[in-house]
Amino acid sequence: xxxxxxxxxxxxxxxxxxxxxxxxxxxxxxxxxxxxxxxxxxxxxxxxxxxxxxxxxxxxxxxxxxxxxxxxxxxxxxxxxxxxxxxxxxxxxxxxxxxxxxxxxxxxxxxxxxxxxxxxxxxxxxxxxxxxxxxxxxxxxxxxxxxxxxxxxxxxxxxxxxxxxxxxxxxxxxxxxxx
Length: 179
Hints:
This protein is of the alpha/beta class. It has one domain: Glutaredoxin (3-Layer(aba) Sandwich), CATH 3.40.30. The chain has helices spanning about 1-20, 75-90, 100-110, 125-130, 160-175, and strands at about 40-45, 50-55, 65-70, 95-100, 120, 140, 150-155. A 5-stranded mixed β-sheet has the order 5-4-3-6-7. Strands 1-2 form a two-stranded antiparallel ribbon. The chain is globular, with a radius of gyration of 20 Å.
């Protein structure tokens, strides 16, 4: 009798583990950064390579960081959404051009529109790694204190913008310290 109980117990444990895993959305990748300060960086600005920008330059602002590349097909899908958002939102979008050729990235923005206040060149991908980027595109909402409040893996769609990002931005704008 006990020789049947051990396999039965293993089977039940596996079934419980599988059932628990099925409750999670496979599109939502957890981020160790949510709730923590955004990584420090200082990078060249894509459209003016002699200039640089750092995370410290953005302290005191609510902002979005969109990780993108000209070679990224999904980035092309989300790009019109970002361009539209940039025209109607007071919250700035900063780009992190990830492992891309600067000339190709500049051409891409000239042809398709530039939603970014500035796009920063992450040629070797180190800053992307610091942010925990799995792949492009990814978008982060960062609050006035420089804390990552949300991470979107994959393209920002109108639905994600309306259901997740905009409500969070409205909430952050209501928090004390809004200028």
